[in-house]
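Batch manifest line 420
LIGAND: adenosine-5'-diphosphate
JOB: complex structure
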Amino acid sequence: MKFDQYNFDSSIKQNLEALGFKKPTDIQFKSIPSIMKGEDVLAIAQTGTGKTAAFAIPIIDMIKTQKRRDVAKYTRAVVMVPTHELAMQIERVFKEIGKDTDVWPLAVIGGVDQAPQIEKLKKGVDVVIGTPGRMFDLAAQGHLKLDDIQFLILDEADHMLDLGFYKDIRDMIFKTPRTRQTLFFSATINEKIKDLAYSIVRNPIRIQVSPKNPVNKNITHSLAYIEMDDKRFFLERVVNENTEAKIIVFVRTKVRAERVALAMKRVNIEAETIHSDKEQEERTRVMKDFGEGKLKILIATDVSARGVDIPNVDFVVNYDLPDVAENYVHRIGRTGRGMNKGIAVSFCASSEIEFLKAIETYIGVPISVIELDKEEYKKTIDFSETPENEDWQSLINESEKQLEKAKKKKGQKKNKKRTK
Ligand code: ADP
Ligand code: MG
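JOB STATUS: finished
ARTIFACT:
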């Protein structure tokens, strides 16, 4: 079935066509009718399979239909997400699909000035998208009214619970009317989210696509055994062998992100970092540059592993293996999105074998191994442009300083705001 055969509002159809969406993906095909019928839905589908549009299309359509009869201004839908970047991205999708429909979305994110958000809320916003914390604050201050909410959506639902948003989410749920429709979306699911879904929601319909292997089939993924101190040489090689490629490099900690960026700088590779100690404005700029292709190498912690849809990422490098098994699926899921194919490679040190085992148990299949013979391994290190007399310790010290600087900058901004 194609989108033009659906009974959607004509603007929505035009917008889908302009986006190049001809027919629904599996998860869209299965979820849209249930959502339009008013059912509660727990939808699980692999990364990059179009879950955002699976809820955005029916919600825009239903709000638009309703607004023909009801001209009052109030917020009708709330979308809860784990990160700021994801909130902004979902706002964009709502804007694109909802162009000319008179359905207004707004991302409300923390870390930036609240006043413009409050101003917009006053003028009337139909769909509010944000992290549970900021949303809860706005609701507590009376700027976000939840009494008339008809749709409550939790995207990357399992992760929000992992981040400790459980209480905020429950509080938000209880502040919305019992008659609301609740939708959970994620690529991975755990017991906690199932319990929450089944305890709070009326008979949710569970819709699951490809449950066996959570890794999207558009992604070719493999791993190489590389010792910790040698990883930077191999990253240098991957980058130099793919000079035009857009690459996301995932590391386990913020300080490691800074360290890897500095190591790349030393060999003349331009890379930037994104992690939670950076100011929001800086995070937004880096994501924009990477999205537009001005920046080719992005070094990220798991804050960017979930949901973020960046066009045409060619490679994901797991510089460190994730210590939470399902994050493997989300990290490599930043490539191979929509109709595109992608490649992911993981660097596994001997100290990370436990993580590897947990990941393989989680995805249910072993990850294929790239065999590196001794000579090739040595060559990669010898060919590095790292200066002969490089002092690794100074790099470590410098990266720590870099992180301190970022933290301080963020802290100063916060204080400034408070004293205002
Ligand atoms: P998910 O939330 O499942 O990880 P997204 O909603 O971010 O995936 O969508 C992934 C990509 O697929 C996006 O770039 C989006 O534009 C594209 N996409 C979504 N639906 C369709 C469709 N029906 N046809 C073509 N591309 C689509
Ligand atoms: Mg998503």
